[in-house]
Amino acid sequence: MSQVDTVLLPELDGPVPATLPSALGLLSLALGVGALVAPGPVARLTGVDDSPAARSVLPAIGLRELGSAAGLLSGRRPAGWAWSRVAGDAMDLTLLGRALAERSGERRRRVALTTLAVAGITAVDVLAAVRVGRARRARARVIRMQIAVTVNRSPAEAYRFWRDMENLPRFMAHLESVRADDLRRSHWIARGPAGHRVEWDAEIIDDQPNKSITWRSLPGTRVPNAGRVRFVPAPGDRGTEVRVELRYAPPAGALGRAVAKLFGEEPEQQVRDDLRRFKQVLETGEVVRSEGSPNGISVRQQAMQRPAQPLPASRR
Amino acid sequence: MKATAWMGTDSVKVIDVPDPKIMNARDAIVRISTTAICGSDLHLYHGYIPAMRKGDILGHEFMGEVVEVGPQVRNLAPGDRVVVPFPIACGHCSSCQRGLYSVCENSNPNAGIAEKIMGHSPAGIFGYSHLLGGYAGGQAEYARVPFADVGPVKVPDEISDDQAVMLADVFPTGYMGAEMCDIKPGQVIAVWGAGPVGLLAAASARLLGAERVIVIDRFPYRLRLAEEHIDAETINYEEADVLDTLNEMTAGRGPDACIDAVGLEGHHGNTAMYAYDRAKQAARVETERPFALRQAILACRSGGVVSVVGAYGGFVDKFPMGAFMNRSLIMRTGQCHVQRYTRPLLERIQRGEIDPSFIVSHRMPLCDAPKGYKIFQKKQDDCTKVLLKV
């Protein structure tokens, strides 16, 4: 069995990128340690050394920063911790606003500079929180599938058919066409609801003859997607276990909803149907049709089958 | 063309529909000469098989003349007289290659629904609900036959239509029912149901060397057929206790193998027992009335075979698992893998070893199909098997 957590779309499949949150975590750590260990110099530097309250508030702020640092550096819930930093920033700016109003001269200048610096950090914090949140939601939208079928053909035959990407629309119902541009790259057109089409370019990123094929959409695709198919000899000389893993990352918004509709409520069922058709094409030569299911297997259409009688001439 | 269509529970009509056309390269179109109403069509007629739609063309027992073949069909040509097996089978999946044609892995385009009910999907069947493929059936003037390079068998001139059409379903099904009993010399075989399949299972048990064959039913005219054509002993379960009688006939051993040729719409001599399952079935709490199966299990000698060829569709209650397990019984079952039997059984007919058409009671034109269903359903006019002539 393959691992469900295989990374096929690194920018969407892997962990949420943590560089910025980690950097902010380090900043929190430095500020926190500073405020705890040397509240006096920090108070002087920021121009609030004249306030007895500052001496008790600064270590508390330091503790808060250490909390944020621990959270951000742990790597868990980075969006939440980034927003905790934004909340801290808001509190700091409020305190600094009040401090600014009460001071003049050199101290006022230092408080103003501190305010400016904190405002800058706030902007970075907001940016980080928004980006991390967006990345997390994009990952949550990724549709992951892992489905297998046994085909009474050798791994070499099954591989050969799949490796010619132009064959894919013969069994993948949502595809209108695939054009091979060269041995690695191909252009895909999927049929969407209400005549919408989704197009993208894909490339084969790993090709193990008679064993596996891995492909993914090129960067910049509106609907990033990737797949891997493995051809494993079935035990007992029963042909080939064709094991497919797929990733689709529908964007947010209208296009995302359209893509979701494309795959219906049970995306796995549709891919299962695709693999059934793959088996039919390989074993019998084509997709098997009945009068009730003239387009072949389709779970969606099973709910609204036409009667089992010959099609009228207009539908042939 | 004219075709017999399911219009709802207890309703069929002969309607006009478009002529069939080739849809797959391995299809053939057959102009039907003789087609039959099967006992299992009555399950559809009564609404016990799910996923029927108004307008579905019925019929899975038919034969006729090839009028058109798809580009991949090389074994048949227009003009060939053929009989068509009821399961649709691709011939290339591993089930087909092991001879298990009725569980072909490719022929049910609606496998997804079948899997939800049965775990895995069986083969598609002509005119037998959308659960089993949504294929138009053969009680019509023409039929499209998928995988025509695998299923249809050419019929020599000396074999009549009435004989040949038995090869579509009932004779192979009965034969497989007997074959699954693994009959050895001296054995006693009991058959529940003296319909076409039960009678042909009993006749096949004779062909396969059974010492004694006992047929159980409630219609004297059908039991008479078993006595006259198969030289079988009979039990009318409305007149005698089946288990007592079988024990007495076999000196307490029980039959060596029991064939259930009844299926999901059984009847029971005890009115209360019948009412219990009939009510549950009507409320769809239970989909079957498995009287014959329960009785076959209780009757069978310890270590014997219970062979089930009667059709079931869903779930049974009060399955006597204790008897089944504690007495080392063996159950063998399946929709018939007809493609495995057509040629050998055709040869048996040619050699004169059996004439399966002894079960035919009625012949009528296709346009009388609704009448045929009615008299078959009501067992009127000593009806055993209705053939429709086109």
Automatic annotation (TrEMBL), chain A:
Asked whether the keyword Repeat is assigned, the reply is no
Transmembrane segment boundaries: 20-38, 111-130
Location of the region described as Disordered in the Swiss-Prot/TrEMBL record: 286-316
Using the record's annotation, list all stretches that form the Coenzyme Q-binding protein COQ10 START domain.
151-276
Spell out the InterPro entries in the cross-references: COQ10_START, ORF3, START-like_dom_sf
Keywords, A to Z, come to:
Membrane, Transmembrane, Transmembrane helix
Residue spans with biased composition (Polar residues)? Answer: 292-304
- PANTHER family reported for this sequence: POLYKETIDE CYCLASE/DEHYDRASE AND LIPID TRANSPORT SUPERFAMILY PROTEIN, POLYKETIDE CYCLASE_DEHYDRASE AND LIPID TRANSPORT SUPERFAMILY PROTEIN
Name under which the protein is recorded: Uncharacterized membrane protein
UniProtKB/TrEMBL annotation, chain B:
Keywords, A to Z, come to: Metal-binding, Oxidoreductase, Zinc
InterPro entries noted in UniProt: ADH-like_C (IPR013149), ADH-like_N (IPR013154), ADH_Zn_CS (IPR002328), ER (IPR020843), GroES-like_sf (IPR011032), NAD(P)-bd_dom_sf (IPR036291)
What's the source species' lineage?
Bacteria, Bacillati, Actinomycetota, Actinomycetes, Micromonosporales
Q: State the protein's name.
A: Threonine dehydrogenase
Citing just one GO molecular function, the answer is: oxidoreductase activity
One Pfam family name is ADH_zinc_N
* Keyword Oxidoreductase attached: yes
Where on the tree of life does the source sit, at the highest rank? Bacteria
List cofactor names only: Zn(2+)
Under CDD domains, the record lists: FDH_like_1 (cd08283)
Q: Which Gene3D superfamilies match?
A: Medium-chain alcohol dehydrogenases, catalytic domain, NAD(P)-binding Rossmann-like Domain
Q: Which family does it belong to?
A: Belongs to the zinc-containing alcohol dehydrogenase family.
Metal-binding keyword on record: yes
Enoyl reductase (ER) domain residues: 8-388
